């Protein structure tokens, strides 16, 4: 029996220290909700989850870009829808102006309305979306994924020959009104093609946005499995370590009392 070296107390202290460390780690996980509190907890898992989180953020940004592109095309189509009504009314006026029972004064009134509608169409071509021209005819590269890949969305050009011919025409005389019929038909045909093109872009962008959403959800779930703590499992671990700390503390106190038994030999 020795008193200078209390191996029992040292062993109990070592076990208590390990239990306290495990308890602190469990408490940190429960309070943060993260399985990886320090890089040493899971170095490889931390690296993977960091990359996954970065990709999730990129997908989120790409989805926002696609959403803005959809809004851009919707704004375009909103203007084209009104322009279509204007062209249809202008087409109707070309026939009204050919009425032989109307005088030149009557045709002048029709032409006044026709001219105002033509100016409306021309003015619509100058509209912008957040400072970006809606109808410049310039293609826009829309981001489609988190890697920065894009697809070119062709622009709608309201300065195309079909539109400018319609806005430059007049119906103040019967011959002009007759010529305007064909011009307006060409403009309406071009408008229908442009709206169909916008519709195809909206369909593609909607599918792209849905795919980005699904990919983001899947990657988020993968990252969660690596770094998020299972609260039920960790609570059980916390209770276990807490009991070990309490029992270890009690046993260390008992181990420190063992050398006192030497006093009985000296009595």
Describe the structure.
This protein is mainly alpha-helical and 267 residues long. The chain has two domains: 48 residues, no CATH class; 185 residues, f41 fragment of flagellin, N-terminal domain (Up-down Bundle). A hairpin with a 2-residue loop joins strand 1 and strand 2. The chain starts with 6 loop residues before the first helix and ends with a helix. The mean pLDDT is 89.
Q: Please name the CATH topology of the largest domain.
A: f41 fragment of flagellin, N-terminal domain
Largest sheet: 2 strands, antiparallel
**Could you name the CATH homologous superfamily of the largest domain?**
f41 fragment of flagellin, N-terminal domain
The number of distinct structural domains comes to 2
């Amino acid at each position: 029996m020795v008193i200078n070296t209390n191996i029992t107390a040292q062993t109990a202290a070592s076990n208590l220290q390990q239990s306290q460390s495990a308890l602190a780690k469990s408490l940190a996980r429960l309070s943060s909700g993260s399985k990886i509190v320090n890089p040493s907890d899971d170095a490889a898992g931390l690296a993977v989850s960091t990359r996954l989180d970065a990709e999730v953020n990129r997908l989120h940004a790409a989805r926002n870009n696609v959403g803005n592109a959809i809004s851009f095309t919707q704004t375009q189509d909103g203007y084209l829808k009104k322009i279509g009504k204007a062209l249809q009314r202008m087409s109707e006026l070309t026939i009204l102006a050919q009425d032989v029972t109307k005088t030149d004064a009557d045709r002048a009134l029709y032409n006044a309305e026709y001219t105002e509608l033509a100016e409306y169409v021309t003015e619509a071509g100058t509209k912008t979306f957040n400072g970006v021209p809606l109808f410049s005819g310039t293609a826009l590269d829309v981001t489609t994924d988190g890697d920065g890949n894009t697809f070119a969305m062709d622009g709608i050009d309201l300065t195309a020959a079909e539109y400018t011919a319609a806005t430059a025409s007049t119906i103040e005389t019967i011959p002009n009104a007759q010529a305007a019929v064909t011009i307006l038909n060409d403009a309406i045909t071009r408008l229908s093609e442009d709206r169909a093109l916008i519709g195809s872009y909206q369909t593609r962008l909607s599918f792209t946005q849905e795919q980005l959403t699904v990919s983001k959800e899947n990657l988020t779930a993968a990252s969660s499995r690596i770094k998020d703590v299972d609260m039920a499992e960790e609570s059980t671990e916390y209770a276990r370590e807490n009991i070990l700390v309490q029992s270890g503390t009690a046993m260390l106190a008992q181990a420190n009392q063992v050398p006192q038994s030497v006093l009985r030999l000296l009595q």
